[in-house]
Design goal:
Length: 193
């Protein structure tokens, strides 16, 4: 199964993500931008890729051993990858919401997950970025389209998206369909002190 480990977002934050996506829809770039389903918005902690059935038990056992308490996060500000100054943007691939408060605890959790999964045979991830994807660019953008998107991002660079308590870490199955991925929880790890 295609799998990843993630933190689901609160319904309030998902509603705000949907509002932000609508702000980008006003740019009239429907054929260029593909937004994530806000009902499935999450913070990816580790992408696993294809995991054979036998490997799922290794992942759930590793997550079961994880020791990390709950913590609060605050989502704030819109940005994009690859990062560049407004004047030097040549391309945009991903539009995201950043994680402000709680980013250090999130990084600590992610590192703990990396080490547990490395111990059971998964490769270490090179770089972790605390962000929630709003949407992706589907085709090469024209320079005037980049300018419009960057202007909208600049307007939203400090927007408050919401706060929540992170109490669970989830192993999720991702089934790719023509209408977008469908996620299902395979295992839920409660974070306790």
């Amino acid at each position: 199964m295609r799998a990843f480990i993630a933190i689901d977002l609160s319904e309030e934050i998902r509603a705000k993500i949907e509002e932000l996506q609508k702000a980008f829809e006003t740019l009239g770039l429907h054929n260029a931008l593909k937004f994530v389903d806000p009902k499935q918005a999450h913070q990816t902690v580790k992408f696993l890729g294809e995991v054979p059935d036998a490997g799922v038990e290794r992942v759930t056992s590793a997550l079961a051993e994880l020791r990390h308490g709950p913590f609060a996060i605050e989502l704030r500000g819109v940005g994009f990858f690859p990062e560049a100054s407004r004047e030097r943007v040549r391309t945009i691939r991903v539009i995201w919401v950043g994680i402000d408060e709680g980013a250090e605890q999130l990084r600590t959790l992610q590192e703990a997950v990396e080490l547990k999964l490395y111990a059971v045979g998964f490769p270490l991830e090179r770089r972790f970025s605390a962000h929630v994807t709003l949407g992706r660019v589907k085709r090469p953008l024209k320079s005037e389209e980049i300018v419009r998107i960057v202007k909208k991002i600049a307007e939203l660079k400090d927007v408050a998206v919401g706060k929540m308590l992170v109490e669970e870490l989830k192993l999720k199955r991702s089934t790719l369909t023509p209408n977008g991925p469908i996620y299902a929880d395979v295992y839920v790890k409660r974070l306790v002190e």
